[in-house]
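Friendly challenge for the regulars: who can give me the structure tokens for this chain first? No prize, just bragging rights.
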Amino acid sequence: MKLSQFDYKLPADQVAIYPHSIEHVVTNDKGVQNTFRLKRPDECRMVIVHKKSKKISLHKTGPKGKILKDEQGNRIPYTLLDFFDYFGEGDTVILNDTKVLPARLYGTKEKTDAVIEVFLLRELNAEMRLWDVLVEPARKIRIGNKLFFDNTGDLVAEVIDNTTSRGRTLRFLYDCTHEEFKQQLFSLGQAPLPHYVIDHVDKNGKKDRPVTEEDLEDFQCVYAKNEGAVTAPSTGLHFTRQMMKRLEIHGINTAYLTVHIGLGNFSNIEVEDLSKHKMDSEEMHITQETCDLVNNTKKAGHHVCAIGASVLKATETTVGTDGFLKPYDGWTNKFIFPPYECSMADSLLVNLYQPMSPMVMATCAFGGYDIVMEAYNQAIKAGFNVGCFGDVMLIVND
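First reply, four minutes later:
Bragging rights claimed.
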């Protein structure tokens, strides 16, 4: 298929730049009202795609199929909390438990004091403090340059290699234990929010999304465990502690795997013919315990739901010809796009993703190109939001 087939018109005001929230009005004993905004990522809206019947559902309906409305006359959308109408005891959801690094740092260049963005990709050698990074503006950074990362001058990095046009290898000069070094390094970092969030502009063309301390929590899944990602498995951001408790109450199993998600998911695809595109490799791990839980669920005839495009990629990387999951420790650069027959999970929950992104393509491969793109069109027309903090799509096999 062609890249342009996965494009759609996305209004700027439908890019979610903060987690989903609701208004809560409190009236005190003097009759004065105060309005608070409460984060409720698990109450984001949900598009439901029925894979076999080709039905798309955005709003709740009554017994006779009439769309339900609230007191203000607005259509009542499905939300993520309606997930439990489709899954129950004995079913299994698969989650990516990677933990996001505070990967975006800002340093100053020696002598010129030019501010340089340094984006941590991965640690190459713990003993030598070597890191693979991206720098911006790259034209100012050459081998031998030094960067300072705090006011005291204690944390310094030297550029020792060029890897790509923007890529560099840095050696951090910091005399302490490895744990102390990482603690100091990460204390200076920001949450690596996607550029479509931090570069978002208002109607006057001014940036309207400052980075905050809260982002370190908001851009991390509550079940994150294994450090190594430079962006969050965004569908999992909607799974609050209350949502995880609901899974437990409903008897739904939680299986975990690890994919350390890289920036390749946000890089522009530069070829029209998708068969010529090469994805960056990402480290992934699937244990025997996870395989046993998922495979036993399938054998028992229960549902297996992949939570997010990274989980879909991981399971499709290791699934055998028998349709069962296999243990894995290594890397994957699997690029899923139609036509492709997914053979592991029977259901998929994903965010609404940016146009022409690899995640949109993987979603179309799972659910079917025509119905998924039509679901996107309907969702955008209905005002649904897109991005890591946006709304979600559930694809079920009925």
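The two ends are 26 Å apart (CA to CA). The first helix runs from residue 178 to 187. Your move, everyone else.
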